[in-house]
Amino acid sequence: MEMKRRIHLELRNRTPSDVRELVLDNCRSTEGKIQGLTEEFVNLEFLSLINVGLVSVANLPKLAKLKKLELSDNRISSGLDVLAEKLPNLRHLNLSGNKLKDMSTLEPLKKLENLKSLDLFNCEVTNLNDYRESVFKLLPQLTYLDGYDIEDREASDSDGEVDEEDDDDDDEDDGM
């Protein structure tokens, strides 16, 4: 299904300003670009664009309240500077499974002052020597990289996610 049509269906008779979460996973992006998403989504806090064939995030609208962005399994290799410009409150960014090859492509993320969690699993950049150390040095605002902090401690569910209000249903695996 095409991205614009999927957004239309996801609205379900709501206005874009009513939408807090938008999941567009596995739909088609024409020419590898984001389409149909506008600045009218003023209250959007979570956007998921997993496996939609994105090559670029250049068409991303300004979404001031967006806290979590899922972009895994796309073909993004550069152009991350748009994120700081359009998503000033972004806290969690998942770029796993993209075509990010070197540290310089991550440089623009320095401008995302609220970024706490970054996932880069299955990106070529993770094969670089001292990858984790280099990313934490480049992005001092980060708390978690690929689900682990600088001391290699795993993120708890509540730290790794934006949805603080739902964390009471994650307790079943903590039983002793």
UniProtKB/TrEMBL annotation:
It is found in: Nucleus. One of its GO terms (biological process) is regulation of apoptotic process. It comes from the Eukaryota. PANTHER family: ACIDIC LEUCINE-RICH NUCLEAR PHOSPHOPROTEIN 32, ACIDIC LEUCINE-RICH NUCLEAR PHOSPHOPROTEIN 32 FAMILY MEMBER B. It comes from Takifugu rubripes (Japanese pufferfish). The lineage of its organism: Eukaryota, Metazoa, Chordata, Craniata, Vertebrata. This is Acidic leucine-rich nuclear phosphoprotein 32 family member. Residues 128-146 form the U2A'/phosphoprotein 32 family A C-terminal domain. One of its GO terms (molecular function) is histone binding.
